[in-house]
Specification:
heterotrimer, A mainly alpha, B alpha/beta, C mainly alpha, A: two-stranded antiparallel sheet, 13 helices, 73% helix, B: alpha/beta, Rossmann fold, five-stranded parallel beta sheet, 15 strands, 19% strand
Chain lengths: 314, 441, 299
């Protein structure tokens, strides 16, 4: 049996605490937490790419595909099982990512960013033109169940939260190991100096390819969860500002640890919702200032709060 | 050295967990804080665009109208039948939220409004996507909600047996059926028709409905072109050339706000509007802003009897005066529509028969199928099983002189039963089958 | 035949506008390696400055066209340069040496802040400054017509491009800037005051963005959010042409402009995709854009 690392034990504990707290937290918080976890899943994909030195401004492509897989699967294929719908999204997304990956792994820096953005915007354009799918208005997601369990009225939110927690925990545990694996470490090496990586006999394109496809799958799961929770999908999910938001959250958290995206997503969503409520006319200003302060004082993201002392020691 | 100062990974994770819990409990505290809202006020959440391109022409005028009307409601200075203080005796308190950010975010904000801020009712939503996403949530949370502006005909067909969700305006079908009727009456001889619509659901739906209606009402007309520039594009030089090469006589456009005004100004300078007449389904919002930029004879609609199309009655007279006194310009149609939604809320509360604060059920059952007085005349909630307003549609021609200012001439109105499909009919099928049961006299 | 002429003219008009918008972006990136997301906000700032100054001038009985144009260009340049100076000295300066991507997010934060500041300053009501646009009238070619103002924008664009080219290629400052573009560390070692050059470049780039907005203002209605709409288009043009190259920006603008005009006249349904399709297909064959130079990899 595999040994659990301490941070994995604590991830599991944190997940359980969060899940159990859903019994006492108000409904809006449960709902917001689910959306934050869904966003964090997408952000994990962005972080994976970032560790390899690539910034994607088009992760909304996979986020949107995951969302539309849930919407379309329920509407046209009569699939109502949440896990099957999420699986459907992952399948479609991985298939697309495997094609796009062949092209995109040749690109770096801003060219990678702009190409991913272009593909995401092309999907946006197609969906806007799809009159049958409601164009920009999107459409509603059917009522769903999990493995035959149909959440009773009033329990949809907490069911969705538990589902999100389980999936996010699985993803976090996997990524924790992945970051320590030779593949994950090779990504970091590519960021530092990819020519040397090549000299060491590692195919950088293969490494980046696998990395890209996994990141796409995570984006799709995040999109599916958002669709299941919010009950509505629309093309905005593929618009570039949404992808920009994910990059924003990723930088907020930093790439130090798998837990960072979750904390960052929570903080981002809570700051935004309170800013919208308290300063309806200038919430973007608040968001921008918060972001600048974080970049100025915590250049490695919020996670560096937890590691700063240690680094000072070393 | 300093082993004790070095946080182990589990300590760090613990710290992380503690942070998240602190955030979560902060949220709960906020919840508990606002839960102690006062008993003698009625809290309404207002959701409208405060940023982005829809804020200037729609969102902010609507928010300003809400400010004017809520103040008057609380002071009891509205004309009869609304001349009592507050709503059902309660002072009206409002929370304004920005509608920007897309449907998913609006679902989140709606839940925050209802569950964290404990609003008693919500009025809002200009974007159709937001209406479609929020309406099922309103039903789930059993919260009395009025959509004041969004125009999608899909709203009620997709919302099975609504109970708490209402719309106090017309949908986009009525705009375009009305537009076709107006052309048939005033310009029966035209043959070449073109369109320019913003490239999103609103523009596509509008053009579809208009085309279908024209095929029924003026089968001789030919559609020579339809341009679909992106929303907020601002500059329409290329589209105008493309329209010119097709030589239309009428240019139908559902563009709104700054886009619509910019298109009119550019098309006017380029001479396109000498060759063709523009028919602007939301043109009324530019009524006080066009000045000489729109040529005389341009056909304007106001999405119903709103803004400059408001009929003369005590309420509309009061509203125009109060709004202009407070905000410096006459109200445009989004302002009137917001005022109408607030009057619907006051009507529902005053007539609910409740002691003190009316419940969501009492509000909903009072407004359902009700008939109430508004700035747009008498409103009947006659569509969608009593959840949507049935109102007449107005079109008129714009004329401007620098001495007397803008005016509307040749105004025609079409009864609600003429331009809106009866319950149970899909809008497009209804048009295609020749408007069954329509009453146009 | 009519359509072909229309495509050429419309494509040229749109391309000249694209070039104006993209020029500042590419100058800043070339020298500073900062992809300035706030460029769109500078554009919006210029548009607001010019729209409100022209509006004020005509409201106070002004009727001299040349004064209106002087106000338009002057106000836009001044406000753009001031905003650029504040942004560079106040924020970006603290961040030099950080990751290129982090700088992108810094400018994104600036974009958010500027969007709301502009809303606080100018409100949300659309601003209209149509007088210069209307005053220059139109030229008719059969059923087609071209607005005189847009012909003038082509001229402005050519002049701006020529000045930029002369400045970079034929002046001493330009030579120094090119040395920074080529190798920043070595030029610093040769005694170039890179920081001062950065400030100058950013201020000029910001001014260019504001000029683009200033000259666009009479055509459009100036509303909140116009900056966000142009930023992706400008990025696409710059990436297509090759980052940091003025010639590249010009050619990129021409290709995108003509492609868009062709699509609007023949297949209006494709308009939404066309810019991205052009960018993606150029990048597939020329991974660094048309005039971009592949940088040597460190080993």
């Amino acid at each position: 049996m595999m040994h659990l690392q301490k941070s994995e034990v604590l991830l599991i504990v944190a997940a359980l605490v969060l899940g159990l707290s859903s019994f006492i937290s108000p409904d809006w918080l449960v709902f917001t937490s689910t959306l934050a976890i869904a966003a964090a899943l997408v952000v994990m994909g962005v972080v994976m790419l970032m560790r390899a030195g690539l910034i994607s401004f088009g992760q909304g492509l996979f986020y949107c595909m995951g969302g539309y897989a849930v919407g379309l699967g329920g509407r046209f294929l009569d699939v109502t099982d949440a896990l099957a719908l999420i699986g459907l999204g992952v399948l479609a997304t991985v298939a697309l990512a495997m094609v796009l990956g062949l092209l995109l792994t040749r690109y770096r820096e801003i060219f990678f960013a702009m190409l991913t953005l272009a593909f995401s915007m092309i999907l946006y354009g197609i969906l806007v033109k799809s009159h049958g799918l409601g164009s920009t208005d999107g459409f509603g997601v059917v009522d769903w169940s999990i493995l035959g369990y149909q959440p009773a009225q009033g329990h949809e939110s907490s069911t969705a939260l538990w589902l999100a927690i389980v999936l996010a925990l699985a993803a976090a545990l996997f990524l924790n190991r992945y970051f320590q694996s030779s593949l994950g470490l090779a990504c970091e090496a590519i960021r530092e100096n990819e020519v040397r990586v090549e000299y060491m006999g590692i195919s950088r394109r293969q490494v980046l390819y696998i990395n890209y496809v996994i990141a796409a799958a995570l984006g799709s799961i995040g999109g599916s969860l958002t669709a299941l929770t919010a009950g509505h999908v629309d093309p905005t999910m593929a618009y570039w500002t949404i992808s920009g938001e994910f990059v924003f959250i990723a930088l907020l958290g930093g790439t130090g640890h798998v837990a960072a995206p979750f904390i960052a997503a929570f903080i981002f969503i809570l700051v935004r919702t309170y800013a919208v409520e308290l300063f309806p006319n200038s919430w973007q200003l608040i968001l921008g200032v918060v972001l600048l302060l974080i970049i100025l004082f915590l250049p490695k993201g919020i996670w560096s709060l937890f590691t700063r002392k240690r680094r000072a020691e070393a | 050295m300093g082993h004790s100062l070095q946080p182990k990974s589990w300590q760090r994770t613990l710290l992380g967990t503690a942070t998240s819990l602190a955030i979560a409990s902060g949220g709960i505290l906020g919840f508990a804080g606002s839960a102690s809202a006062q008993e003698d006020t009625f809290k309404v959440g207002l959701v409208t665009f405060l940023s982005g391109g829809a804020s200037g022409p729609f969102g902010v005028p609507a928010a300003q109208a809400a400010e004017t009307v809520i103040k008057a409601i609380n002071e009891g200075t509205l004309p009869a039948p609304y001349n009592t203080k507050g709503i059902n005796g309660l002072q009206l308190e409002s929370v304004v939220i920005d509608e920007a950010g897309g449907p998913t975010k609006q679902v989140e904000e709606y839940r925050n409004l209802v569950q964290r801020q404990n609003v008693d009712a919500v009025i809002g939503y200009i974007s159709s996507g937001d209406c479609l996403a929020v309406s099922p949530v309103a039903e789930e949370l059993k919260t009395f909600t009025i959509a004041f502006d969004c125009g999608t005909p899909r709203l009620f067909p997709e919302l099975e047996s609504p109970k708490y969700f209402f719309r106090t305006g017309l949908d986009a079908t009525a705009d375009n059926v009305g537009a076709a009727h107006y052309l048939k009456e005033t310009r029966p001889d035209i043959t070449r028709v073109a369109g320019i619509q913003q490239n999103y659901a609103w523009g596509q739906d509008s053009w579809n409905d208009f085309q279908l209606s024209m095929k029924q009402l003026m089968p001789g007309a030919e559609f020579v072109d339809n341009q679909t520039p992106q929303i907020f594009q601002g500059s329409y030089g290329t589209e105008i050339s493309a329209l010119q090469t097709n030589r239309p006589e009428i240019i139908h456009s559902s563009m709104w706000g700054g886009d619509m005004e910019a298109f009119v100004a550019q098309a006017n300078v380029r001479g396109l509007l000498d060759q063709a007449t523009a028919l602007l389904t939301t043109g009324e919002s530019g009524f006080n802003r066009f000045k000489g930029q729109a040529p005389d004879g341009t056909i304007l609609g106001g999405r119903g009897p709103f803004g400059a199309f408001m009929p003369d009655n005590d309420l509309s007279e009061w509203f125009s005066k109060a709004y202009e006194a407070q905000h410096g310009v006459p109200p445009s149609y989004p302002s009137s529509k917001m005022a109408q939604a607030l009057l619907a809320l006051k009507y529902a509360a005053d007539n609910s028969g409740a002691e003190g604060k009316p419940s969501d059920e009492q509000l909903a059952s009072t407004l359902k199928s009700a008939t109430f007085e508004s700035v747009s005349g008498t409103v009947r909630m006659a569509l969608a099983d009593g959840h949507q307003a049935l109102q007449p549609m107005y079109y008129g021609e714009y004329y401007y002189s620098s001495e007397t200012g803008p005016e509307l001439r040749n105004i025609r109105s079409y009864s609600g039963a003429c331009v809106s499909p009866p319950d149970g009919h899909d809008a497009q099928e209804w048009i295609k089958s020749g408007f069954p049961q329509a009453d146009c006299n | 035949m009519l359509t072909i002429w229309a495509i050429l003219i419309d494509g040229l008009i749109y391309a000249s506008w694209l070039f104006l918008v993209a020029a500042g972006l590419t100058v800043i990136y070339g020298v500073m390696r900062i992809l300035n997301m706030a460029h769109g906000s500078l554009y919006a700032l210029g548009a607001y400055a010019s729209a409100s100054s022209i509006g004020w001038y005509y409201a106070n009985g002004g009727d001299q066209l040349w004064i209106a144009f002087a106000l338009l260009a002057g106000c836009a340049i001044v406000i753009g340069a001031i905003a650029g100076l504040i942004m560079e000295r106040g924020v970006l300066r603290l961040m030099y040496g950080r990751d290129e991507v982090l700088m992108l997010i810094v400018t994104f934060a600036l974009l958010l802040i500027l969007e709301d500041l502009m809303k606080l300053a100018w409100g949300t009501t659309p601003y209209f400054a149509y007088q210069p646009y209307a005053a220059l009238g139109r030229f008719n070619f059969g059923v087609l017509s071209v607005s005189g103002y847009q012909i003038m924008v082509i001229g402005v664009s050519v002049v701006v491009g020529a000045i930029l080219w002369f400045w970079l290629e034929r002046t001493r400052t330009g030579k120094i800037l090119r040395s920074i573009i080529h190798d920043r560390e070595v030029s610093e070692a040769m005694g170039v005051n890179v920081r001062r050059m950065f400030t100058m470049t950013f201020v000029i780039g910001a001014g260019l963005g504001a000029i683009a907005g200033g000259f666009t203002a009479p055509i459009i209605s100036v509303v909140p959010g116009i900056g966000v709409e142009v930023i992706v288009v400008a990025f696409a043009v710059v990436v297509t042409g090759g980052l940091g190259s003025i010639t590249g920006a010009a050619i990129g603008a021409l290709i995108v402009g003509l492609a868009r005009a062709a699509s609007i006249h023949t297949m209006p349904q494709l308009e939404l995709f066309i810019i991205y399709a052009v960018m993606a297909s150029v990048l597939i064959f020329r991974p660094n854009g048309l005039f971009g130079q592949a940088t040597a990899r460190k080993i």
